[in-house]
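Q: What would this chain look like folded?
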Amino acid sequence: VKQQDIRRLAQKMSKYSIVVLCLAAYADAFTPVVRYSRSSTAAAALKEPKDEMKVTLLAGDGIGPEITKATVGVLEKLGELKGLKFSFEEALIGGAALDAVDDPFPAETLASCQGSDSVLLACIGGPKWDGNSRDKRPETGLLAMRKTMGLFANLRPAKVLPQLIDASTLKPEIVEGVDIMVVRELTGDVYFGEPKGIIEENGERVGFNNMIYRESEIERIAKVAFDVAGKRRGEGCSIDK
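A: My prediction, written as structure tokens:
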């Protein structure tokens, strides 16, 4: 893949199927080419499905509990229809965890997540905790979860349903048919780049951060984006913000 190919692809990209990769701006970041295959562990899991799948429920804050309850109902119905069995375990995160144990991502929650087949996270945060110090804010728990569990890829679909097109603040002719998948990197760049902080210099405060990416971090998020694109229209656009 060459830079001119990326530019040509960006010019041609359709509003109906775009994978946006928020990382390196140049194609050089994706070389050398590596062929991937499904891991033996994943392959074995597909061949020998479990009798029961454990799901950790992180309802979080705000409307999180309401969302979680509705989703669990859908999963239970799906299980009935498809012969699947789920077991659910609730755990704390975000503001709810701060209120209960003064930790936005308790060790017990991490253990539950790591011992599950899947994790269902609703939402975190709210005005109640906006005045807290950085280490006592709900979003700090989310960042800790990403880092400790290696959750590096975020898939964000944006699809306009005909029934809801009039609910958009944009003109119908602009949003009609939009079907975009954004693939966002979550653990590199300024999220966890070191060193970072605020120092005193010449009588004033100076803030600094580090935008750091390892080649392996770029490679793995690129693989996710390419896999997603391959299941759609086979087109992608790399964006560095």
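Confidence is low (pLDDT under 50) at residues 9-42.
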